[in-house]
Amino acid sequence: MSDHLRSFDRSLPMSLLRAREAVMKKFMPALKAHNLSAQQWRVIRALEAAGDMDISELSEACYLLMPSLSRIIQNLESRGIVLRKSSNSDQRRSLISLTEPGHEIFTEIAPKSSERYEFISERFGPGKLELLYELLEELVEKIEEGDAG
Amino acid sequence: MSDHLRSFDRSLPMSLLRAREAVMKKFMPALKAHNLSAQQWRVIRALEAAGDMDISELSEACYLLMPSLSRIIQNLESRGIVLRKSSNSDQRRSLISLTEPGHEIFTEIAPKSSERYEFISERFGPGKLELLYELLEELVEKIEEGDAG
DNA sequence: GTTTTTAAGTTAACATGTTAATTAATATTT
DNA sequence: AAATATTAATTAACATGTTAACTTAAAAAC
User: Which of A51, B42, B109, B136 is deepest in the core (most CB within 10 A)?
Assistant: First the structure.
């Protein structure tokens, strides 16, 4: 096999993408059952974990760009899953919070998420999973240092 | 920090996503200079490496779904980067090939891609990079075995 | 050999990724 | 205080991700 072919097969972005898809695949039905996308679920998880946040904070916590988040919040708000109230101290900011139905959805889905993690940890090995997390973290650090970003 | 918070911060899909973004970040300008997306570049690379392919083969090689690929091929065809001719043996299939301008674009961008890999390999360490590839591959294998998929 | 089924590819509809432009509110500058 | 610059968030425009419906051609079944 030529070097070109090998480097294409082993493209790092594609390997990372494939891994991500594999990890999420069997969890997606639990989200689809509530008509939620992976991104919408990230927002719900973040709000449940860290409490009310404005959209900029959510953007960082969920690793979503503002325009995506803006649309996601509109969608979740129209479905009664989150609530927005404008901040008193800064009228530009909107504080987002989970509604009671939002909490309930989290409570229904969270166990499926845990199950998925346990499944992956058992199959792959907890040690290797921990190692993978550390490698990914270090990879990002080293790249961003070097990119001066 | 609560278990919920920790598991959110260390969400495997988000870690994989972040790593992917870091890897690609400084390479994107080389693509933008030719008005290419990462996905369009994958198609060009695959055609350069493995020669003419039909759209189903490209779909597997580039890890893109058919609807996305369908639009990407239309775009690249309209820009004269690829060419399509319907197969004689099976009128349903379209054979896609790189045009001469398509080859030239590959030749201009490929060195930037190699530079990026060398940069990452140097910063992160070739051994760790190899280990990461192996872990990602094994993760996918183990998950897909268990998912019976 | 005609009906039925399967397969390749496209289109549709809606959500997200991405960059740039825009709006409204706050901070700075002068 | 008025003009200017920043900042939070939205909107716009276009490409992609994703599932389902659709079209056409080939294969199988009868």
Answer: B136
A54: left (phi over 0), alpha (psi -120 to 50) or beta: beta
DSSP summary character for residue A33: T
In angstroms, the CA A112 to CA A120 distance is: 12
Residue A92 Cα to chain centre, angstroms: 25
Model confidence band, residue A10 (pLDDT cutoffs 50, 70, 90): confident
Q: Return all residues near B126 (Cβ < 8 A) that are at least 6 apart.
A: none
Report the length, in residues, of chain B: 149
Whether residue B128 and residue A137 make contact (CB cut-off 8 A), yes or no, is no
User: Model pTM?
Assistant: 0.91
Structure tokens at A17: 């993408």
The one-letter amino acid at A11: S
pLDDT digits (tens, 9 = 90+) for A21-59: 999 999 999 999 999 999 999 999 999 999 999 999 999
Q: Dig out the tokens for B136 from the structure.
A: 């990602």
